[in-house]
Amino acid sequence: MAAIELDSVGKVYDDGTRAVTDLNIDIADGEFVVFVGPSGCGKTTALRMIAGLETITEGELRIGGRVVNNVPPRDRDVAMVFQSYALYPHMSVRENIGFGLALRKVPKAELNRRVEAAAAKLGLREYLDRKPRNLSGGQRQRVAMGRAIVRQPQAFLMDEPLSNLDAKLRVQMRAEIGTLQRDLQVTTIYVTHDQVEAMTLGHRVAVIRKGVLQQIAAPQDLYDRPVNVFVGGFIGSPSMNLLTATLRRDEQGYVADFGTMSLQLPPAVVAARPALAGQAGREVVVGIRPEDMDDGSLAGVQPGRTLSGVVELVEPLGSDLVVHLTVDARRPQDLEDIAELAQDNSVAGTAGASDAGGGTLVVARFSPRSTVTIGQRVEVAVTTEQIHVFDLSTGAAVWDAGVPASAASN
Amino acid sequence: MTATAGSDIVTGAINRGPAARIVARTSAGALRLFLLVVALIWLVPTFGLLVESLRDPATFTTGGWWQVFTHPAQLTFENYSQILKDGAITSSFLNTVYITVPATLLVVLIGSAAGFAFAWIEFPGRDWYFLVVVGLLVIPIQIALIPVVKLYSILGISGSLVSVILFHVAFGLPFAIFLLRNYFAGIPRDLMEAARMDGASEGRIFFRIVLPLGLPAIASLGIFQFLWVWNDLLVALVFASPSNQPLTVTLANQTRQFGSSIDILAPGAFLSLIVPLIVFLAFQRFFVQGVMAGSVK
Questions:
Q1: Chain segment A61-104, per-residue pLDDT in tens
Q2: Which chain B residues touch A126 with a CB distance below 8 Å?
Q3: Which CATH number applies to A4-224?
Q4: Would you call A90 and B2 a contact, using CB atoms and an 8 Å cutoff?
């Protein structure tokens, strides 16, 4: 087990394509770090550079204090779980799991003992003599895990290990991977595009976009204090609603003015954001999470805490009601981040930020006791304490004036 | 960690009722019948050769091999015992073996190593070298005969078994490399990388991953190469000295010297035919589909 340090690591391919830029991440011994981001953001490339399957063109990578930029994969002592599992089809489960040990000339008796132990841990004992083709998807995934844990490596690298499983199995295996990592205490880097996996598994989550680290923080910090519009929109499902507002000063503090509606920023929100002063009188992006909105007729309508909209779609989930409504406000159009988020959302099948009619479509999570129907005009109670404010031109979150956007809350 | 295995086991074929199987069989019946007829027609000359090789030479002038159906008494093993006593035939049969086995093994070994390198090892100019190999495929053997004869006399190996073997290896390799490179390139990259992560060197990857997974292609290449060399007449005729000539040359000489010495030709030809058949049947079990099943996804 070892710490992994990425020091200004970057990757430029021979044809000039830049995949990863200036990645600075220190991963502590035994830590579970998740790289998350939309597809093609460079997270897998970063992982493959740590594995040694991809050359590092810039910066320095250290595993356990040793610089390994030019060390081949077999001498880095890290194990990898591939998205495709990459099991050796001509070998039995036993041989698959033991292959790495056999190559390292581990004595036969010890090899058998360790393979058996790994198989027992993963519930694979009865399948040791089967070939991969005679296993189910979940079992193949376990064999791939077994191949990694049996070697007792310095670190585990996992490249979207659950993406080929069906939803139910994925949830189960996700929990098992979490438990396994806690038991073994091995430094783990896990790549996924699924933010639920990222949030549930990671001690810290690194959000990567276009090869650039946006923010690395504990899951709750990431949710509570996103450093920019991209992180705010990427973390959380359904994703954060982003609206353009004019930040107006009044006697009680600040008001986000959407035109026909406005929200009063509570004192706590203002106190946490000294930089708001610099945005007064300017247009800003206001972020409101769906879970911070509720049916006004149930939660109560108060001035400065209410938006009004027309219901376009109601999706009952049992636990809550996902309500799509159009509100009379503008969506920030110019930010590149938002265009990318919208694209990513439509791929993921969640609520996109497409506009309907005259207003902007927002998504809210109402209490299941709400009785709203399609076409109805509703008052939406907003928990303004949880509101997020971003700079309209840069997309950076408005917090302390001095904190740069991408290095915050590390 | 708990496992809920048991419910999600994937077994082989879907279990179907006998009626469903009969329906499936009969619908393919017409095609099967057609293929059977074609196969039988193709087998007639071979069968005729077998029968002819078993007939008493004295009866050859009285009519064709089909006479055995009315005169089974014509059958005898005499021809075979004659040619097995014939030193020229047995030594040329052995020569064929001495030429074919190394020429096949070398092509398979060198071809698979080169195929692996062309498919999976990065080196400068790799794809250009491979294009050259592909280009060599279209060079006819005949063009090379005279230059190689000259080359062999300089090297001092004219007429030897080695000279014949080398020629076969040289002309077998382009196709071998082409075939195996393309097959190996189809092995998922993740498998190589998984092996690399597991600590395998390139050599280990070749022997432990690529060779076992490439067996279907290697087996078919082996059979092709074996048949080409075994049945070759031209190369042996040009390069082999009389004492080193293989069975094909010896048999061809029979027709020249005696006009029609069918009592030697028929059993000799059948002997020459039966060995590749055995090789084919032996290697046939490596022709399996779905070697990669269960590997990725």
A1: 999 999 999 999 999 999 999 999 999 999 999 999 999 999 99
A2: 5
A3: 3.40.50.300
A4: no
Tens of pLDDT, residue by residue over A194-230, are 989 999 999 999 999 999 999 999 999 999 999 999 9
Domain A229-391 has CATH 2.40.50.140: yes
Which residues of chain A are in CATH 3.40.50.300 domains? 4-224
Q: State ipTM.
A: 0.85
Chain B residues within an 8 Å CB radius of A78: 197
Q: pLDDT for B82-94, tens place per residue?
A: 888 888 889 999 9
Task: Count A/B contacts: CB-CB distance under 8 Å.
Answer: 122
In chain A, CATH 2.40.50.140 sits at 229-391
Residues of chain B within CATH 1.10.3720.10 domain(s) are 80-286
Q: Which CATH code is given to the segment(s) B80-286?
A: 1.10.3720.10
Q: How far apart are CA B124 and CA A37, in angstroms?
A: 35
Asked if the Cβ–Cβ distance from A53 to B193 is below 8 Å, we say: yes
**Spatial distance between the Cα atoms of B189 and B193, rounded to a whole number of angstroms:** 6
pLDDT digits (tens, 9 = 90+) for A362-390: 999 999 999 999 999 999 999 999 999 99
In percent, the amount of chain A with pLDDT more than 70 equals 91
The crossing angle, in degrees rounded to 10, of helices A137-149 and A108-122 is 140
